[in-house]
Amino acid sequence: MGKTTQLGLLSRRVEACGFEVCTVREPGGTPIGEEVRRILARSQTGSIAPRAELMLILAARAALIGEVVAPALAEGRWVLSDRSSLSSRAYQGYGRGLPLEEVELLDRSATGGLGPDICIVLDLPAGEGIARHRRGRKRLDRFESETDGFLERVRLGYLELAKSRAEAVLVPADGTVDLVAERVWREVCAAFPTGLADPRDSDSGRVSPVR
Ligand code: TMP
User: Fold this and answer.
1) 169-179 burial, b for 16+ CB within 10 Å, e for fewer?
2) With a 6 A CB cut-off, is 208 part of the ligand 1 pocket?
3) Nearest-angstrom CA–CA distance, 128 and 182
């Protein structure tokens, strides 16, 4: 899907503006988070009750925020995250069918209310994104192997969320890597109209490309 490539390019641009950047991924970034990622990804894990899946992801998020994100922000660094709370709404809410209010309530408890200032949703036309994603991976993880329209529900969820959540911005992901990077950069600059702010001066500093 190219989101990790885009995260790297964005990170370089923010650094070129003179800021220190901390990049993380979810689930992951801490020993517990990486273990959760392994459990969730491997196909031998089999099916997990949706609430258990959500809670594993939230445990990973709570560890990441407490051990990495909050300290980085306190040091004045920008934090760029490959996925964030929006993914829980899309995957566990829309995809697995858990009530969105429940996902949001539990997520707030895990994050202590700390969330991204802007969340980039990279979008490809229906079918193309999923096909590209599947082609690009040698082995499919548990989520990518899901059938019964799971990934389609997740995509529609992201589209809904991009309309209803103030921090979420939909960015078309068709075109070259450089073109998409330009679109992402334009949105990030628009989100910080007074210039890329020092995160110590405001709540700013967490930008989170997803998908
Ligand atoms: P990826 O980011 O490398 O694609 O892998 C992360 C997987 O974890 C992806 O399939 C989506 C899934 N995920 C959730 O289901 N909920 C979440 O909240 C997050 C952060 C990820």
Assistant:
1) bebebeeeeee
2) no
3) 21
Give the span between the Cα atoms of 29 and 7, in whole angstroms.
15
Q: Is the whole model's pTM more than 0.85, yes or no?
A: yes
Higher-scoring residue by pLDDT: 45, 35: 35
Contacts of 201 (CB under 8 A, 6+ apart): none
91 lines ligand 1 (CB under 6 A): yes
Closest CA to 77 of 33, 39, 38, 24: 24
SS3 207: strand
Residue 40 Cα to ligand 1 midpoint, Å, equals 9
Who wins on pLDDT, 147 or 32? 32
Nearest-CA residue for atom 16 of ligand 1: 88
DSSP single-letter state for residue 118 = B
Question: HSE (CB half, 13 Å, CA atoms) of 69?
Answer: 31
Grouping H, G, I as helix, E, B as strand and the rest as coil, residue 120 is strand
Distance 55 CA to ligand 1 centre (A): 13
Does residue 53's CB lie within 6 angstroms of at least one atom of ligand 1? no
pLDDT of residue 109: 98
- Show the DSSP H helices in the chain as ranges: 3-16, 31-41, 50-64, 70-74, 85-88, 100-111, 128-136, 150-164, 177-191
CA of 57 to the centre of ligand 1 (A): 9
